[in-house]
Amino acid sequence: MSLLSKSTILNLLLPLTLFFGGVEDVCAQKPADDSDMSAATEEELKAEFDSLMLEDKLNSFIFDMNTALTEIPLATPSRLSMIESSTARIDYSFNTWVGSFQAEISNNDSLLSMVAEYKDIHSEVTKAIAEAKTRQKEVVDCRDALAYMVKADTIYKSMLEKAVALSLTDKTADKLADLKEKEKLIAAEVDRFYQLVTANKEKNPVLDGQKREIEELYLSIKKRSAEIQAAEYKPFFQRIKDQLLGIAAVSIILMFLSMIVARLKAWKEMKENLKKQKELMNINNKEYPQI
Question: Which residue among 3, 136, 198, 279 is least crowded, i.e. fewest CB within 10 A of its CB?
Fold first, then answer.
């Protein structure tokens, strides 16, 4: 076998060199493509992780507000105060946190929806706390008003007896005037408590019994108040005259009422008689046929 020439050998190696050179170029480029894909995937994962973290934090705020909302209806005054303070702190933290991630949240529809949900629940909590405070204030007002009315009713009974006794002689006119001034101060307090109870027009079945009792006591107190203020010294014969006039006035009223009752009775009897006469006429007309 003859030896190959140098040019022949170079011609044979050229294709192999080109082939392996191309393979090396491809191999050199492949790691670069993998690196780009890896970097893109890492960014997507990071963005998804950040979004999940934000959602988890928003869910935490929503859960805390919902928990407070469920506790409000049965909360005692002290517990309601604690809930109000707690929700105020939660809302402050929420607003601060949302401000820190405003850019991320504004570009995510899911996060924006959760922010809106939180704000709706917070509005419900604020409204529920205000309503609970109103109910609790009404309970306290009724309790305090009833206690004061019961005490005032006893005081007024004693004051009226004293006012009548002081009005029997003109020597105690100054004491009677002092008693009337004292009564005015108590009456003002009675009116204040009564207005507290009647200010709220909403129906509350739990307090209906107390309100009726307060109403009865208030009317009784106002009646005695008028009698105390009207008390004044009158000579003996003047008092007798006033009593007789009072009796006469009652007699006139009774006589007037009796007269009205008698007239109503007579009118009713006349109506019955007319009805009977009409029925008799109808019967007679049926017995005798008309031509």
Answer: 3
- Alpha helices for 72-172 (secondary structure H): 77-100, 102-106, 109-166
The Cα 201–Cα 203 span in angstroms is 6
Please list the pLDDT of the chain residue by residue as tens digits (291 residues): 344 444 444 444 445 444 444 444 434 444 445 555 565 576 666 667 778 889 999 999 999 999 999 999 999 999 999 999 999 999 999 999 999 999 888 888 999 999 999 999 999 999 999 999 988 999 899 999 999 999 999 999 999 999 999 988 888 889 999 999 999 999 999 999 999 888 876 667 778 888 999 999 999 999 999 999 998 876 554 556 655 666 766 667 877 777 888 888 888 888 787 777 777 777 666 555 554
Helices (H) and strands (E) in the chain, counts: 7, 0
Single pTM value for the model: 0.59
